[in-house]
Amino acid sequence: MNLSLTGKKYLTTDERRLTQISSKKRNLCLSVSICGFNQILFLCILYSVFCILFFACVPPPVKPKPAVDVAKPPPIADPFKPFLDEHLKKAVSLEQQGEILGAIEEFKIALTIDPTNDEAKVGLKRLSEMADIEAEKHYQKGLSLKKSDPSKARIEFLIALRIKPDYQLSIEELKGWHLFVAKSRLLAPSGETDTGVEDYLSVALSLYEDGDYAGAIQEFLKAKEKYPKNPEITKHLNLSYYKLGVAHFEKWEYKNALRMFSSLKPDFEKVGDYLKKVRAGLKKTAEDSYKNGLKLFREQKLTQAIEQWNIVLEIEPEHKKAREYIEKAKNLLKSLEQLK
Amino acid sequence: MRDTGQRNRKTTLDADKRRYTQIFKYFTSCLFCVHLWLIFIIFLSLSAGCAGVVPQPEKKPPPIPKVEEKKPPEEISKERKSEDYVVIIASPSNTYESLSEKYYGSKNLSYIISEFNQNQPITPNKEIIVPLKSLNPGGLYPEGYLTIPILCYHQFGKSKSKDKMVVSEEMFDKQMAYLKENNYNVITLREFFDFVSYKRRPPKNSIVITIDDGWKNAKVIAAPILKKYGFKATLFIYTDLIKPSKITLTWDDIKEMINEGVIDAQSHSRTHPDLTKTKDNESETAYNQRLEKEIGESQKIIEQRLGIKPTFLAYPFGTFNDASIEILKKYQYEGAFTVIKGGNPFFYNNFSLNRSMVFNSEKIEDFIKLLETFKKEQL
C-alpha cells in the first residue's frame, strides 16, 4: 500500500479488490449484526409458536377420573348386603352350637362378599386357631392310643381330620393303620366277619413290624386264644419267638434266647443251630462264672463270688461244686458277721 | 516511518479483528438458519400429522383400564369371588351344570355346587355359593363317613350256574337295574382314586364295578348290560389269559369295549399267581424277580397292546405283602386291590383297598348287603 500527497491511501489493484470484498462482507455482517437482538427474539417467537402447535396437536393424556365423574351413576345399595349379614349371623350361631368348622366356612363366605369385613376377619382368625388346638389334641390322643387301642386311636385321628381337614399327619396315621388292618384281615380265617379280630392282629402286626417282638408275642397269643387253629397266626407267633430269640443271642443273653428257642420246634427256621450255639454259649458262661467265683472267693469277696456261682446254678442247676462253694461262702459270711 | 509502521500494524490488527468478528457473526447466522430450518421441518410434520396427511404409527391409547372396568352396576353385583368361594346372585339362565362348567370346567361336578346349596332349585335373585376348594374331600361328617364299595365280578353265564363265581345274565341285569333305580352313582376307578387320595369327594351313593381276569363273557354278557344302564366298569386282566379263544377275550375285544366307553383296562398280573407265596427252594432274589415280571411285564404288555399304561392292580387271589407293594411302587402303580369284603373310606391305604366279591346268588338282598355307602360312627 502506498500513500499519496494528500495523505490519502493509494491502493494497489489487489488491495482495492480485497477492500471491496471486505466491504461487501462488512455490509452483510452489518445487516446480520443489526438483526443480533432480533435473531433471539425471532427464535423465541418461533419456539413459542412451535410449542403452541405441539400441544394443540398432541392430545393430552386422558384422565380417567374426570371422565368417570361425568358418567358417575347414582349410588346403589349393595345387593349382597343382606346375604353378608345372613352369613355373619349364621357363623355366630354355628359357633355357639360348637360347629367350629361350619362357622369358619360361613366367615369365609362373608369375606368373599366383603373382604374388608372386620367381624368376619376376626372371627375366622379366632376359630381357625381354636380348630388347630382342638385337632392337635385329638391327634395326640390318637397317638397315645395307637398301640393299646387302635380302634379308638382311629376315631381320634378322624375327629382331628374333621376339625382340621388338611391335617396331613392324621391322614398318614390312618393310612398306616389301615395297611395293618388289611394285613390282619388276610391273616384272619376266611369268612371271618368279626371285626374285633382286626384289633388283635393289627396291633400284633404293627408291633412285629416295629421290631417289638415281645409285644407282638403277647398280642399274637391273644389272637391264638381266639383262633387256635389259624395257621397264619401261629406262623407269625413263631416268627416273633424266633426273631426275639435271635436278638437275645446276639446280645449274649443266652438264657433268654434259650427260652425263646425252646418255644419252637427244632426244625423251625434255624432253631436247631441256634439251640446248639446257645447251649455252648451257656456252658462257657457257666465255666467262666464258676472260675470267676473261685477267684473272688480267694480274694475274700464272698458276696460277689456267691453271685457268680448262682449264675452257674441258673444255667446248670445240678452243678455240685458251685452249690458246695455257695454253702461254704455263706457259712463264712455268717461267721464273719458273728465275729463283728 | 515509525508512524507509518505503527499505522500499518494497527490497520492489520483492525483488519484481523474485523475478520474474526465477521467469522463469528457468519457462524451465528448459520446457526440461526439451521434452527429456523429445523423448526420449519418440525412444524411442517406436526401440522401434517394433525391433519392426518402422513400416516402415523398407531399410538397406544393411554392406560385407562379403570374406565373400561366400570360396567353397569347390575353386572358388577352378580358375583363376588375369593380363593375359597364364589358367591353369585342367581340369574334365570343359571343352572348347577352351567355353573359347574364355568367354575370347574366340567358339568359332571355340578353335584358339588348342588350339595353345597342343599340341593335347592336355583331361584333368580337368590344367592348361590360355589366352593372353589375341595371341601370335605374325605366325606367326613359328625355322624360318620362316606365309604365306596367296589364290586368284583369274575364270570357271567347265560343261565344259572352251580359255580359261585359265575353270575347269571338275568341276575346281573337285575343288579344293575337296582343300582339305577336306587340312584347309585357308578364312578370310574380314577374318580374313586381321587377320593382315596383325599382330592375330591365323589357324589353320595357312589360305587365302582370291576370284572377280573378277561373272560369272553365280560364282552358277550356284561358289556351290553352295562351299556344299557350307562355304567362303566374296570376290567382287571391277567395278560397271559388274553389270547384268541372262544372263552377268553382278545386284545381287539378289549379295544372295542374301551372305544365304546364301557370299560377301562387295568392289571391283574401276568400269570395270576399268589404274589405272597414263594416257590419251593426259591431264593429271595428269584422271588423278587418273579414279582417284577408279574407286576412290571403285565403293565408293559397292556401298554403295548392298548396304548394305556395301567396304574392299578388287582392282587391275584387278593393277597399281598410288603414285597409286592414295594414293586408296585417301583413301577409307579397308584394303588392295588384285595378281595377283602367291605367299602372303602378315604383313609384306607391305597395298596390294600377292599373289593367285595359278587357271588352267584338268587337273592338280590345278598347284593344289596354289599352296597353300604355310608358308615355311621360318632366323630
Question: Quick recap of the structure?
Answer:
The complex is a heterodimer of chains A (340) and B (379). Chain A has 340 residues and is mostly helical.
Describe what this molecule looks like in 3D.
The complex is a heterodimer of chains A (340) and B (379). Chain A is mainly alpha-helical. In chain A, 78% of the residues lie in helices and 1% in strands. Chain A contains 14 helices and two strands. Chain A has a two-stranded antiparallel ribbon. In chain A, strand 1 (2-3) and strand 2 (9-10) form a beta hairpin. The radius of gyration of chain A is 53 Å and the shape is elongated. Chain B folds into two domains: 79-131, Membrane-bound Lytic Murein Transglycosylase D, Chain A (Roll), CATH 3.10.350; 140-376, Glycoside hydrolase/deacetylase (TIM Barrel), CATH 3.20.20. Helices cover 41% and strands 16% of the residues of chain B. In chain B, helix 4 (96-104) packs across helix 5 and helix 6 packs parallel to helix 8. Chain B is elongated. Residues 49-61 and 64-76 of chain B have low confidence and may be disordered. Chains A and B meet through helix 1, helix 2, helix 4, helix 6 and helix 7 of A and helix 1, strand 2 and strand 4 of B.
